[in-house]
Each structure stands twice: as C-alpha cells, then as structure tokens.
Amino acid sequence: MRRVPRAPPLTFFPEPESRMTRFSRTLLPALAVVALAAPAAAQEIRSPMRYIEPASSFGLFAGYVFTDSELRLDSLSSVALGPQSAPIFGARYQLRLGGPLSGMVSLGVIPSKREVFLAEPNADSTAITPISTGNTVSAPVVLVETGLLFGITGPRAWNGLAPFAGVTAGVATEVGGTSEAEEDIPDGERYSFGPSIAVGVRLGTDFYLTPRAALRLELVGRLWRESAPGGFLNSRQAKVTEWNGASSVQLGAVFHP
Hints:
The protein is mainly beta. It has a single domain, classed as Porin, CATH 2.40.160. The chain is 10% helix and 54% strand. The strands form 3 sheets. An 8-stranded antiparallel barrel has the order 2-5-6-7-9-10-11-12. A two-stranded antiparallel sheet has the order 1-8. The radius of gyration is 38 Å and the shape is elongated. The model has no long low-confidence stretch (mean pLDDT 86).
C-alpha cells in the first residue's frame, strides 16, 4: 500500500522580519517627520528689518558745539569776536511726511562765552587794530532750526538701527543783553551775535530700545553768519561778514507717542 505524504503543519506565527525591513519601517516615518518640520522651521526665521509705526516723535538732546569765533577784518588781521565753543541742550519734534521723508523743528540753547575787544584805528583809519580788554562775558545763544530728514532704511529699523541724513536751516541769536564788562565799550565797537542765518547738514542714527523709544546719535555740520561792528571797519570797508563753523555732536532720546 502506497503511503501519502503528510502536509506540513499549519502555524500562526510569522517568520521573523529581517533587519533591513525593520530599519526601513523605522527610517521612513522619521524622514517624513523631518520633511514636514523643515517648512515650519523656515517660517520661524525672523527678519532683521522692523517697521517703525508711529508717524511723529519728540526728542531731547545734548551735545557740544565747536565754533570758529575768528572774524577776519582784512588780509592782515582777524579778531575772535564770535561765540566760543560750548555745550548745547535742546528739544526736537519730528513728523513723517511720507515714505522715508520727515520734517523736523528743533530749539537749542548754547551757553557760550565770548571775548570783549576794542578797536583802535590808525591815523587815517585805513587799518584797525583789535585790542583785547581781557574780559570774557556770557553770551548764551538760542538756535532754532527746521529741516528735512531722509531715513536711509525708510520707515524701518535694521537690527534696531534707523540711520538718516538731512539738511537744516534756521536762525541763531545771542540773548541776555549787555553785560557790565561791556558798558564802557563804545556803541560802534560793541559786539552782539545775531540774528544770524544758520545752515547745516546732518548724519545720524536712531537705536531702538523699544518700539516707542530710541537713542539718537547725530553729527551736524553747520555754518552761521557773523558780522563785525561798524567800529571794526576801516575807511575802505562797508561791512565785514563771513560764514563761520558751528558744527556739533549730539546725543539724545527719541519718544514716539
């Protein structure tokens, strides 16, 4: 009798997976998670540019004005009649006109001093010799300026910095009246500064500490007009007037309402 071979026994346990299969099943989901996370990470990159929302600002500043007090009378002589170098303190208002352009107006006070001179003409008044009295008097100057500022980065700050450049024009004048040291000076030889036209260019930057408060560093190249009193003019001169330097370095705070 012929024997029929038996069928292999049934089993309900699968054969063990190979290492490659397990690795694939682990790696593919991990790669999918990384691929989906990459765009989300890219969305978290912050731009160094930030908009400056407020349209106006108010600021206080202090600095130092470097003046050229020498006034040339003729080709041979000059005299330091003008205001001397001194600190400056002031306030400023700024209004955005559109895009990167802003208008500004500022009021500054310069507690300056100046020397007192007499004028001694020669026999025919063709030459004038300045004579120092040895006195120095207080000569505070009020400076009012208005101008246009151009924001180099527009209405934005780059890493907190908002640099600008601008032009200004204004009026400077000495206040305070005649001091005791000048009472004996003849009227024609008594000097008083201003009212004088002042023009300038400026370059600076705001550094934003908060969205509404910043520090401002500013360099101002400025010229103002000075004239000699009639007693310092020789017989051939109708007037002596020239532009002298009054540049300043200023540091202040800016507040946006």
